[in-house]
């Protein structure tokens, strides 16, 4: 097998919004969590997972790679330094924050929905700060960050396009390639904004800013984790949900309590579930904490952390989970392990794409694939579906 490529999701947000708690709950990594701004100085990087139903639920026995039929597929998670107003000018830890976002495919914006921290991350009373202001700040900082990159040598680039009749989308995508902008993104932006593609030198500054704002929205898809949901005023949650983002009410703190209690052998809990079972002997203090989390789960259905990760990867990025096997009848590899691997693939991928993901030589020698459920032979034009169990047949 080749080396599995891990997609990366960034956790963004102002200081003291709960990012590091979310990160620790999702990865069980050792990170510093404190009630003051800039607890995270350097980015924390860890491995979390998306949760899907494992195909082994269709078999008589579980595969051994899942938890009670829940399959967890690795994704990278980056907890970047807290964002503050004018980060693009270097204020706070701005440059460190923005540079780490280059690596992320999508962003989970952790917002303090309770309004208990101001724009700088300093503690204030619950409901004292408008969380929608935090959303505006992140959008603005990302847009101006892209703008700074784009306008470096813009006059020269624009003149080159007009003199050499080069496609402007190619030039802009090349300039912004480091932040994940593609030519398709640029074409869509130019069309949507009605900019004259043959006269980029005539574009005004506000038009370039609008262009970057559009490119930010499509190249760094984002959802909002409305954190501290248990103490958030209903009006705050309602107004956040009215934004043009996917918004998931979240309690990173409750998820962390559950994950740590599970690690300590006190409970049985599968991340993403709406309940848990006490199996150990918690102290009176631990029991009270678990009871409070139980009340939260009863009210909201889950802590929201796993839902955030799932939606950031499966919805925002449009990825599917596919299971390559060597024996299509038994769904095993050469060592007899059932469904040993699960790969995240872009929607629209083909069996040949999967073959390349598994190993370059397998992709180069690809002949055809076999559907593990039907035994049907699949050509390279077949579009993979989430949950497919696939055998790749290649030239040896």
Automatic annotation (TrEMBL):
Keywords: Nucleotide-binding. Residues 7-270 form the OBG-type G domain. Transmembrane segments: none annotated. Pfam families: MMR_HSR1 (PF01926), TGS (PF02824), YGR210-like_G4 (PF08438). One of its GO terms (molecular function) is ATP hydrolysis activity. It comes from the Archaea. NCBIfam families: PRK09602.1. PANTHER family: OBG GTPASE FAMILY, OBG-TYPE G DOMAIN-CONTAINING PROTEIN. This is Redox-regulated ATPase YchF. It comes from Methermicoccus shengliensis. The lineage of its organism: Archaea, Methanobacteriati, Methanobacteriota, Stenosarchaea group, Methanomicrobia.
């Amino acid at each position: 097998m080749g080396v599995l490529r891990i997609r990366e999701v960034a956790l963004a947000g102002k200081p003291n919004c709960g990012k590091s708690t979310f990160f620790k709950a999702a990865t069980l990594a050792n990170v510093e969590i404190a009630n003051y701004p800039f607890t995270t100085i350097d980015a924390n990087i860890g491995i979390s997972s998306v949760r899907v139903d494992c195909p082994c639920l269709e078999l008589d026995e579980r595969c051994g790679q899942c938890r009670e039929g829940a399959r967890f597929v690795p994704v990278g998670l980056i907890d970047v330094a807290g964002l503050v107003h004018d980060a693009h000018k270097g204020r706070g830890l701005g440059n460190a924050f923005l540079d780490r976002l280059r690596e992320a495919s999508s962003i989970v914006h952790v917002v303090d929905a309770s309004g208990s921290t101001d724009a700088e991350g300093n503690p204030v009373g619950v409901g004292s700060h408008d969380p929608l202001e935090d959303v505006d700040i992140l959008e603005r900082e990302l847009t101006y960050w892209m703008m700074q990159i784009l306008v470096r040598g813009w006059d020269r680039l624009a003149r080159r396009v007009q003199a050499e009749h080069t496609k402007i989308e190619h030039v802009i995508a090349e300039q912004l390639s480091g932040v994940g902008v593609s030519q398709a993104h640029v074409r869509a932006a130019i069309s949507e904004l009605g900019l004259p593609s043959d006269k980029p030198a005539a574009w005004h500054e506000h038009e370039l800013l609008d262009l970057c704002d559009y490119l930010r929205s499509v190249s760094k898809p984002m959802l909002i984790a409305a954190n501290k949901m248990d103490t958030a005023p209903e009006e705050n949650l309602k107004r956040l949900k009215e934004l043009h983002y996917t918004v998931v009410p979240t309690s990173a703190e409750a998820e962390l309590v559950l994950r740590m209690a599970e690690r300590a052998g006190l409970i049985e809990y599968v991340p993403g579930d709406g309940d848990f079972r006490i199996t150990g002997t918690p102290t009176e203090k631990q029991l009270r904490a678990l009871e409070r989390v139980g009340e939260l789960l009863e009210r909201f259905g889950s802590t929201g952390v796993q839902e955030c990760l799932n939606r950031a990867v499966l919805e925002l990025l449009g990825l599917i989970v596919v299971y390559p096997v060597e024996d299509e009848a038994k769904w095993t590899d050469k060592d007899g392990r059932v469904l040993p691997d699960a790969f995240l693939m872009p929607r629209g991928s083909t069996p040949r794409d999967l073959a390349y993901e598994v190993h370059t030589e397998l992709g180069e020698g690809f002949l055809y694939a076999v559907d593990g459920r039907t035994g049907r032979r699949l050509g390279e034009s077949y579009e993979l579906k989430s949950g497919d169990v696939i055998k790749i047949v290649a030239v040896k």
